[in-house]
């Protein structure tokens, strides 16, 4: 009962008190909160206390950054509750294998990241952090009152006590394991009839096809896309089938980072996370995040490899929180080549995406994989009645034109028959195996 009251208090606080009339007011609030938070972190975290020696801890932008590698190497001294990395990994891996996600350590939730950005990481959530997260997600995600009854269907690779905490007297929560067969999900959903559906876009598309085939008969009031990049074409298809606006939640191991407003625009959660920006070009940036409320596993100046595209236009919802046009991908979704002058050239995922989908209106689904400096593999799904060879040739021409703009030549574009996708993992439509290019890299061999 005490926990539920705490959750409800956080819900009310997030719902009604975190409104800012101006950007200046928001930034002052962030600064005050951070100055209060950093004192706690320095006192409780051995890692941060040592890491920030000699720095002015009240000047956030002057502090050194961390990333997943630094966090995992210093896991034991970074967390504030004395947890051991090996023990946490053991509990988390057992949960993954048994699919029983209830075990905790000293009342702390332990979970694994999906590993899409490299080696798998750990996250720790305390009871207090859990109440804050749950109250926040309910305040931001529910478009109706918390007192309205909801049936939540939540599709993810792994369940967690964190997600289970969403349950209340008015909110029923059911976890749907992405590793299970689709037909099991269809049967359960038809019986459950969720009003609130949360799933990766790849799963939403499968469910939409079941609706079109009259096998799935659900009509959720609220739908959220999570975990994967929501492509414009997929969003359009899903909204047509479900006859609902498809909202998005931008969530990572590092925190609850953003959510769409009633107009469908994605806003960063700057009321509890500070986003510094490492700009790549005029509108693209890598976020450096500081969560000034997360105490168990402090996140301060943590560099993400997500590529965010800033939206310059003001959102009609009136929020002063930064509006994001889209989460374009990760740094390892960027294609890298060598041009005629033997210079490194990077092409952002959005340009590859547009080159492919603009080649034909008949393309239902696609995937582009850069296998090497000179090889790109493409998968496309089209209607059986359409000429596959013609569309493939159009894609080759479109990509060749794109590469020519960057003075890149001799790229082999081949087509594969299957989508590269392991059930339970995130679907990545654009991905590159070329993570970096060493100087020269025996370029004479590449351009022979």
UniProtKB/TrEMBL annotation:
<protein>
    <submittedName>
        <fullName>Adenylate cyclase</fullName>
    </submittedName>
</protein>
<dbReference type="InterPro" id="IPR012685">
    <property type="entry name" value="CHP02304_F390_synth-rel"/>
</dbReference>
<dbReference type="InterPro" id="IPR053158">
    <property type="entry name" value="CapK_Type1_Caps_Biosynth"/>
</dbReference>
<dbReference type="InterPro" id="IPR042099">
    <property type="entry name" value="ANL_N_sf"/>
</dbReference>
């Amino acid at each position: 009962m005490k926990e539920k009251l705490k959750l409800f208090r956080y819900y009310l606080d997030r719902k009604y008190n975190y409104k800012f009339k101006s950007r200046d007011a928001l930034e002052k609030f962030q600064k005050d909160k951070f100055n209060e938070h950093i004192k706690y972190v320095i006192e409780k975290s051995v890692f941060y206390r040592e890491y920030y020696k000699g720095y002015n801890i009240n000047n956030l932008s002057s502090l050194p950054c961390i990333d997943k590698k630094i966090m995992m190497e210093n896991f034991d001294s970074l967390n504030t509750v004395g947890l051991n990395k090996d023990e946490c990994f053991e509990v988390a891996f057992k949960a993954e294998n048994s699919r029983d996600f209830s075990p905790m350590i000293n009342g702390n939730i332990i979970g694994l990241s999906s590993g899409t950005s490299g080696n798998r990481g750990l996250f720790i959530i305390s009871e207090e952090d859990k109440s804050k997260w749950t109250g926040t997600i309910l305040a931001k995600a529910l478009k109706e009152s918390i007192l309205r009854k909801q049936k939540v269907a939540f599709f993810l690779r792994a369940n967690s006590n964190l997600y289970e905490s969403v349950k209340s007297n008015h909110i029923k929560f059911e976890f749907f394991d992405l590793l299970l067969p689709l037909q099991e999900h269809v049967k359960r959903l038809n019986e459950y009839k969720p009003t609130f559906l949360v799933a990766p876009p790849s799963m939403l598309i499968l469910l939409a096809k079941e609706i079109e085939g009259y096998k799935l008969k659900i009509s959720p009031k609220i739908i959220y896309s999570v975990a994967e990049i929501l492509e414009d074409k997929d969003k359009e298809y899903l909204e047509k089938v479900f006859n609902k606006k498809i909202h998005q939640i931008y969530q990572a191991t590092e925190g609850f980072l953003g959510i769409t407003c009633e107009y469908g625009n994605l806003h960063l959660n700057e009321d509890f996370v500070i986003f510094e920006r490492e700009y790549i070009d005029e509108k693209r940036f890598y976020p450096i995040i500081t969560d000034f409320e997360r105490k168990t596993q402090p996140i301060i100046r943590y560099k993400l490899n997500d590529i965010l595209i800033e939206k310059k236009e003001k959102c009609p919802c009136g929020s002063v929180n930064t509006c994001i046009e889209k989460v374009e991908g990760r740094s390892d979704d960027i294609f890298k080549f060598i041009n005629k002058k033997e210079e490194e050239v990077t092409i952002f995922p959005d340009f590859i995406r547009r080159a492919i989908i603009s080649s034909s209106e008949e393309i239902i689904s696609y995937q582009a994989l850069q296998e090497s400096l000179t090889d790109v593999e493409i998968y496309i799904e089209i209607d059986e009645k359409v000429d596959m060879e013609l569309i493939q040739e159009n894609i080759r021409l479109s990509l060749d034109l794109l590469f020519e703009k960057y003075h890149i030549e001799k790229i082999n574009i081949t087509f594969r028959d299957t989508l590269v996708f392991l059930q339970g993992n995130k679907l990545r439509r654009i991905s590159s195996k070329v993570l970096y290019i060493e100087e020269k890299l025996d370029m004479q061999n590449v351009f022979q």
